[in-house]
Specification:
This protein is α/β, with parallel strands linked by helices. The chain contains 12 helices and 25 strands. The chain has one domain. A hairpin with a 2-residue loop joins strand 3 (about 125-130) and strand 4.
């Protein structure tokens, strides 16, 4: 066994998963396995939705049936749509008090640290279990300022004009097969509207938990920052250890109006039975800024490319991503930046680690439309390979239709340096601790840029993945 492979073997604690417990929860309602027009209608009926939303769902289902599976990326042929349950209701109603939830569900979120995070760091919190939110609450002061923070289900009833205007405006059902599926069977997710000039500097957060095996979770999130508004939003997710696969196919739409700012921060921590196939896109108007922070750990396959369409002059987009591909995992992530107006700026920074048979891929698109003069974009991709079997790939696409632009792409791939390990060992540091230090050093330039108050979930992931403190 080579020294490099031995490092990989000793580093096996990366493969542990802290949030894999399963809860025995009695369901209030379920559509059973399989997807059909009747299932789509049943979901809408269970939610007591207005007819216009039912029509949106049924039209999207027709698109889903006709759309082929994506063929340009990871192999998804093992996905059998008839094997999943598309809607499960776990509680009678959403609560704004943690203690009002069923004991089994409350214990789950206690283990994840969500109630404690809300007390310390958050201006509002929502917790989704299977298909619907079981807890949701907004800071009263923000409510008085006109901030709307609802579950997407409630927003359909309480904010129909805003939902009708913006739902599907950034990501139409026809965008891809999984956006069509989400539009047909969506359930839960968050709706946020921030009025002109209002700043939500303390994060709002939603945590998504899948409990059942062979289940499909399809939350729908829509965030609108009006002129001059600012908002920070966090999301996290986890699931139990199951042998059979589940499907997570969310859609996230961000609308940043003139001079506004949206910071969207994701911590994906699925177990390795989850197909994580997500569509996330933002539209930024004049002088607006949208940033995505995307941390991907776990899942069997992740396909996720946060996107910013900069359609107003002076708009800015940024994506920072960290991906860790462990044994038999594929992290296919990246970014899409569309420059549709003059003087727009984008930055993409990607860090990935591959271990064992894990494979990480950066897949990116930089598109500059005709007339988007003086646009600039910088892409930086760095990958670290732990052993010989691990793999990383980069698939950059540049589509430039304007001469007056500045585009830069930089990529690097490195392996764990045995000389570094030997040097650290010569100073009395054990092999495994030396390896952790190398990985920590690789991620440090990005980690140190993250908000200190980001969330308890992120802090735990850093500890688990960089320090190896797995329990």
């Amino acid at each position: 066994m080579s020294k490099e492979d031995k490092f990989s073997q000793d580093f096996s604690e990366f493969d542990s998963y802290q949030f894999g417990h399963y809860d025995k929860v009695k369901h209030i309602a379920s559509t059973g396995k399989g997807i059909s027009r009747d299932v789509v209608t049943k979901i809408s009926e269970l939610k007591n939705e207005p007819g216009w939303m039912t029509d949106i769902r049924l039209k999207a289902y027709e698109v889903f049936e006709k759309k082929p599976m994506p063929s340009w990326g990871p192999d998804l042929k093992e996905i059998k749509f008839e094997d999943f349950t598309y809607f499960i209701r776990s509680t009678e109603k959403e609560s704004d008090q943690w203690d009002d939830m069923p004991k089994e569900i409350l214990e789950t979120f206690d283990k994840l640290g969500i109630p404690e995070a809300e007390k310390k760091f958050l201006a509002g919190a929502s917790a989704q279990y299977e298909s619907e939110a079981v807890y949701h609450k907004l800071n009263e002061e923000l409510g008085r300022e006109g901030v709307v923070f609802l579950t997407m289900d409630q927003a359909v009833k309480d904010e129909p004009d805003l939902v009708k205007k913006y739902f599907g405006s950034v990501i139409p059902a026809s965008d891809n097969k999984f956006s069509a599926l989400n539009t047909a069977v969506w359930s839960g997710g968050s709706f946020i509207y921030v009025p002109p000039g209002v700043e939500v500097s303390t994060p709002l957060q939603t945590y998504f938990r899948i409990n059942e095996e062979e289940f499909g979770q399809f939350e729908r999130t829509l965030i609108i920052a009006d002129k001059g508004a600012k908002v920070v939003y966090n999301e996290g997710c986890s699931a139990p250890k199951w042998a059979k696969s589940s499907l997570h196919a969310a859609v996230v739409e961000l609308v940043a109006l003139e001079d506004s700012r949206i910071d969207y921060q994701t911590i994906q921590n699925w177990y390795k039975n989850i197909y994580n196939l997500v569509t996330k896109r933002a539209k930024a108007e004049k002088n607006a800024t949208v940033t995505w922070l995307d941390i991907n750990v776990g899942s069997r396959i992740t396909i996720k490319y946060p996107s910013v369409m900069m359609m107003g002059e002076g708009a800015r987009g940024e994506v920072q991503s960290i991906a860790f591909a462990n044994e038999e995992q594929l992290q296919d992530s990246g970014a899409k930046m569309i420059h549709g107006a003059p003087n727009t700026t984008s930055v993409v920074t990607s860090k990935s680690i591959s271990k064992g048979t894990g494979r990480s891929s950066y897949r990116g698109l930089i598109k500059v439309l005709k007339g988007a003069k003086n646009s600039s974009c910088r892409v930086e991709c760095d990958a670290l390979l732990i052993n010989e079997e691990s793999r990383t790939d980069t698939y950059p696409v540049m589509d430039i239709a304007e001469d007056e632009t500045q585009i830069a792409h930089e990529a690097s791939v490195s392996k764990v340096n045995e000389d570094q390990i030997f040097y650290l060992q010569s100073r009395g540091i054990p092999e495994i601790d030396a390896m952790k230090m190398v990985v920590n050093g690789f991620l440090e330039p990005m980690v140190k840029k993250l908000p200190l108050e980001y969330s308890v979930e992120f802090q735990r992931l850093v500890e688990l993945e960089l320090e190896g403190s797995v329990g």
